[in-house]
Structure formats: C-alpha cells, structure tokens
C-alpha cells in the first residue's frame, strides 16, 4: 500500500468529521520568537540527516511508517534537500526540494510532485511550511495540502508534525523526527 492509497476517504465522511470537531485556533511562527533555541533551516539540514516517521489516518490509526535519508547542500542562497524514503512495505521514493533562502526567516521551495511553490517561515525554534502535493490515488491524482510545523528541541532533535488536508478537510497527520548524522 502506498502513502497515496491512504488518502481515499469519502468527502462526506471527512466533512462530517471536520464539522464535529469544531474550530481550533492555530499557532503562528511569531508565537515562538523568544524560544531558547533558534532554528536556521539551511544550517540544520546541510549535510546528512536521518528521519523516521509515521502516517496516521484521520482516525489516529497508524497506516504507514518510513525512514528518510536526507542530503542537504547550500549554494548561492539555495538549500537543496535530496530525500530518499524507504517505507515499511519496501516501497522507495525520492523527493528533491529546491528551497530559496529569501532572508528574514522566509523560504520558498519546489519539488517534482509539488505543482506550486511551498512557502515557509521560521521564528525562534519553529518553522511552518505550507504546500500542496500531487498524489496518485488509484487512477486519479489528488492535490493534497500539507501544513508542516517543525520544532527544534534539545540535542539537535527536530520534530515535524504535518497536517494533511483535501478540500480543506483534514484527512491525516504525519509525524517525523529528524536526527543529524
């Protein structure tokens, strides 16, 4: 089963689930300006990084786990991340991000399955990264939204919590722990 196969809920069920949960106030990166640690994305990801993650469906059931080996390079104001995924079912996937370092904690990036630019902002120890991914689901392609929140913790551990949506309705979550090699 591929990660994209997990994004096949019916819209009616997903919508009723969203209505039942109500509204929740979302954080902003400004909330983290005074954090004791400062995340500089291009410094953190330069070199080798390993990450481990889980995908949970909208009901909290773990559907898939994975490992990612990441090689990051920085050149001429661009961070390139070569991500090599290995899923628990043996599937392999590669995504290469090209991320422009815009200054003042602002970033803009693109990858092969990301049809438009991703935009991100860092403040203190937190980074928020928003983008859409084209995922193959059966015979069609779904444009799925990701709202990633990364937090730099002690000992260089970086935690990422990604909220996955379709038509604005949350259909799953991904949790990833990054560790510098």
Using DSSP, what is the number of strands?
10
Work out the count of structural domains.
Answer: 1
Mean pLDDT comes to 88
Task: Fill in the CATH topology.
Answer: Lipocalin
Query: What CATH first level would be assigned?
Result: Mainly Beta
Low-confidence stretches: 1-21
Strand order of the largest sheet: 1-2-3-4-5-6-7-8-9-10
Mass-distribution shape: globular
Strand content: over 45%
State the CATH superfamily name: Calycin beta-barrel core domain
Global Rg: 16 Å
SS-based class: mainly beta
At CATH's second level, what is the architecture? Beta Barrel
Largest sheet: 10 strands, antiparallel, barrel
Give the % helix: under 10%
Helices and strands, in order, run as HHEEEEEEEEEE
- Termini separation comes to 29 Å
| Count of individual helical segments | 2
Care to give the gist of this entry?
The protein is mostly beta strands. It has one domain: Lipocalin.
Account of the protein in words:
There is one protein chain. The protein has 181 residues and is mainly beta. It has a single domain (3-21, 41-180), classed as Lipocalin (Beta Barrel), CATH 2.40.128. It is built from two helices and ten strands, in the order ααββββββββββ. Strands 1-2-3-4-5-6-7-8-9-10 form a ten-stranded antiparallel barrel. The two termini are 29 Å apart. Residues 1-21 have low confidence and may be disordered.
